[in-house]
């Protein structure tokens, strides 16, 4: 089957960039991205592509090229489903905040709504592709809904997890390490797999396109994220030991990274990982393992999260302790709020938790982030429900300029590794601060010696 029309449900961090790249690389395929959120679609259709709702290097250029040609953003969900041969589901699957599996299991209500909508609308056979990260065996649930509520048409469900990293989504999509497609081993399943392989083969060489059964594909995504997060928690665990023993975690990371079996990537100690995926996927894994009675497996992976929570808390404790055990009414400036550089995504960002701890200690937080608005910062804090909206409102000040944010502060802490932070005039910042001027580098991006020679009391992670 030759695919000529694709629909993607969900215009978020996964759906938006992925579909933009498919549209750019496959001009013969019409790609329509739909979302219930009208404002989001309006923003994707902003005449100035610099204003699209998701910031990723290179993305606005691709949208400028393809939008209106074969890439469309719309709220007409049913029309797009009806017309497409292939439907990607890229809706959000947050951790459940209620009921059974609360705080652990994935909330599949958006997925189920999508499946029911597809079943209602589809009048011809469709290929439905799971793009969101999902617990193992979700495809089975989707299939059951489609087969039992549909109009008697045939559905093939494929799992095609997204491996892009935020901040480098466009280059990851253009040059993926691999594309993974899971499907049924029946002839119809194989035909569906091949149809999707042919879409990617427009720009990805076939030896990088892996095909597996649905469950292997679903579990591979969770496993990849669990391994990646585990490396960060492992090096972060060593960072605490380094601080006690006089070793330097950057030196340790370099030394072990040169072992080709270990490799050098993802060994940077920090204030802790964030993002919508790592924690959620590991919690999912833990939940699934527990539900099969595999308690040792569950405990093993849960420790990655426990270590990460500890690392965030340790960072805020260190700030309080260093500032003579009180930060009450002190101005603490955060450079960075996003969970990593080159994205405006703040979900599960370490900054949120560190801010929450410091606000409990009655600190006043000033924030500068090149891509995050104050509204988003407040929404992130309010989501924790630690205190009233008004109290959060009074505790957070946001600035458009880093120098104003730092002026008059008792301490600065770096929460995101934005490149621009390194290039600042640190002497000027030092001159504008209370003394002693403390600098807590939660990302180890600044040069400790240079800052100390200016006069800062510099505290990195793991040294
Ligand atoms: P991700 O990082 O997984 O892409 P996002 O939250 O950025 O997650 O994006 C998911 C998008 O899916 C949101 O914009 C949300 O409005 C949209 N969405 C959720 N459910 C539906 C639905 N049933 N139909 C259309 N869009 C939906």
Automatic annotation (TrEMBL):
Binding, NAD(+): 10-15, 35, 40, 91-95, 132-133, 166, 277-280, 347
Reactions the enzyme catalyzes: UDP-alpha-D-glucose + 2 NAD(+) + H2O = UDP-alpha-D-glucuronate + 2 NADH + 3 H(+)
Domain UDP-glucose/GDP-mannose dehydrogenase C-terminal: 333-448
InterPro entries listed in its UniProt record: 6-PGluconate_DH-like_C_sf, NAD(P)-bd_dom_sf, UDP-Glc/GDP-Man, UDP-Glc/GDP-Man_DH_C, UDP-Glc/GDP-Man_DH_C_sf, UDP-Glc/GDP-Man_DH_dimer, UDP-Glc/GDP-Man_DH_N, UDPglc_DH_euk
Keywords, comma-separated and alphabetical: NAD, Oxidoreductase
GO biological process: glycosaminoglycan biosynthetic process; UDP-glucuronate biosynthetic process
Entries under Pfam families matching the protein: UDPG_MGDP_dh, UDPG_MGDP_dh_C, UDPG_MGDP_dh_N
Residue numbers binding substrate: 162-166, 221-225, 261, 268-274, 339-340, 443
Top-level lineage group: Bacteria
Active site: 277
Pathway stated in the Swiss-Prot or TrEMBL entry: Nucleotide-sugar biosynthesis; UDP-alpha-D-glucuronate biosynthesis; UDP-alpha-D-glucuronate from UDP-alpha-D-glucose: step 1/1
Family in the record: Belongs to the UDP-glucose/GDP-mannose dehydrogenase family.
Function (record text): Catalyzes the conversion of UDP-glucose into UDP-glucuronate, one of the precursors of teichuronic acid.
Protein name, as recorded: UDP-glucose 6-dehydrogenase
Organism of this sequence: Flavobacterium circumlabens
């Amino acid at each position: 089957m030759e695919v000529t029309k694709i629909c993607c449900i969900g215009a978020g961090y996964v759906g938006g960039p992925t579909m933009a790249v498919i549209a750019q690389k496959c001009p013969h395929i019409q790609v329509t991205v739909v979302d219930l959120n009208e404002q989001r679609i309006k923003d994707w259709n902003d005449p100035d592509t610099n204003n699209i709702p998701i910031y990723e290097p290179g993305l606005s250029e691709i949208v400028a090229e393809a939008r209106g040609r074969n890439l469309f953003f719309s709220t007409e969900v049913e029309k797009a489903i009806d017309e497409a041969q292939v439907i990607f589901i890229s809706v959000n699957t947050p951790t459940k905040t209620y009921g059974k599996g609360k705080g652990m299991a994935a909330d599949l209500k958006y997925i189920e709504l999508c499946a029911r909508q597809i079943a209602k609308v589809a009048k011809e056979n469709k290929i439905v592709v799971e793009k969101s990260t999902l617990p193992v065996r979700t495809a089975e649930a989707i299939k059951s809904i489609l087969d039992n509520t549909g109009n008697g048409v045939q559905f093939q469900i494929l799992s095609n997890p997204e491996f892009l990293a935020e901040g480098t989504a466009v280059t990851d999509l253009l040059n993926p390490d691999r594309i993974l497609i899971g499907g049924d081993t029946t002839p119809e399943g194989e035909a569906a797999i091949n149809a999707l392989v042919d879409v990617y083969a427009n720009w990805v060489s076939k030896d990088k396109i892996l095909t597996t059964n649905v469950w292997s594909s679903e579990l591979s995504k969770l496993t990849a994220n669990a391994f990646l997060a585990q490396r960060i928690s492992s090096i972060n665990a060593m960072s605490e030991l380094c601080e006690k023993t006089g070793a330097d975690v950057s030196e340790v990371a370099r030394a072990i990274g040169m072992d080709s079996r270990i490799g050098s990537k993802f060994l940077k100690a920090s204030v802790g990982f964030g993002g919508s995926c790592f924690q959620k996927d590991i919690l999912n894994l833990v939940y699934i393992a527990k539900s099969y009675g595999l308690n040792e497996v569950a405990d093993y992976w849960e420790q990655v999260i426990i270590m990460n929570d500890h690392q965030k808390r340790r960072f805020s404790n260190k700030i309080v302790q260093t500032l003579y055990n009180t930060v009450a009414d002190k101005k603490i400036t955060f450079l960075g709020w996003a969970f990593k550089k080159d994205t405006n995504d703040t979900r599960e960002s370490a900054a949120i938790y560190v801010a929450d701890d410091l606000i409990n200690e009655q600190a006043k937080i000033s924030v500068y982030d090149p891509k995050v608005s104050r509204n988003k910062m407040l929404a992130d804090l309010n989501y924790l429900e630690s205190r009233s909206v008004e109290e959060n409102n009074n505790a957070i000040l946001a600035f458009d300029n880093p120098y104003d944010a730092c002026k008059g502060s008792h301490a600065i802490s770096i929460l995101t590794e934005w490149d621009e932070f390194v290039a600042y005039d640190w002497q000027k910042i030092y001159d504008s601060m209370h003394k002693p001027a403390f600098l807590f580098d939660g990302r180890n991006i600044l040069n400790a010696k240079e800052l100390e020679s200016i006069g800062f009391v510099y505290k990195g992670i793991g040294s």
